[in-house]
Amino acid sequence: MDGILLAVFVVGLIIILILLIYLVDRVNQIEQETRVLKKGGGPRPASPGDPYAGLSGRKLWDAMTEHPPSGIDAAEWANVRQRFALALQLHIESIFEEGQRDGHRGISVEPKNPRVIATPEGNLESWLPPNQVKSVYQCGLECVTAAEDALMGVRASLNEAGKTLYIQAGFPQFPVQSDLLMPGPLPPIAALVDLPLDEAVAAAVPPKGAPPRS
Q1: Where are the domains of the chain?
Q2: 140-146 long-range contacts, CB within 8 A, separation 24+
Q3: Rounded to whole angstroms, how far apart are CA atoms 212 and 199?
Q4: pLDDT tens-digit profile of 94-139?
Q5: pTM of the entire structure?
Q6: Which of 162, 167, 166 is nearest to 179 (CA)?
Q7: Is 121 buried (19+), middle (13-18) or exposed (0-12) by CB count in 10 A?
């Protein structure tokens, strides 16, 4: 009987010892993870619930134009940048449309910055440099009332503002904003008569995705 009790006692001590070793090891692991988090390190994968690596507004723009956040995998950061490219275009369109609305209302205000942009991943607070924001807004404002001969300058300003934003964000390829947001009117029939057939067709057909013109 005494032998059985001793065996049970020894087994109990072994179990307790194993638990203590596990708990000490776990506490050390938690302490290490806490130190890493305090230093801003550690992996920060962008998940479906965190599509922009936990960034928004000015911080997101700075990460795009300067340095990505520490600890994020290069391949995952490339995915974040791809998502941001679409958000950037949607932001530009939102500013331009705000300018158009104000142009129709006959008012001019300071465009919103930052603003909430609806993206496929959900709403995103997005910030862009004020100079380009004002330029895009002004183009939307002026395109509503500008005479036809003045629209060329508006298109040029819009294209330059869009190009600047994409280049600053590190995108060497970018859409021509005036083609997307300011499709020009059809040329008069008389202007097409003397053109070769292929050039006349190209001039008369609206750009792909543009609304029908009257």
Answers
A1: 40-200
A2: 140/95, 140/96, 140/97, 140/98, 140/99, 140/100, 140/102, 140/103, 140/181, 141/99, 141/100, 141/102, 141/103, 141/108, 142/99, 142/103, 143/99, 143/100, 143/103, 143/182, 144/100, 144/103, 144/104, 145/103
A3: 19
A4: 999 999 999 999 999 999 999 999 999 999 999 999 999 999 999 9
A5: 0.65
A6: 162
A7: middle
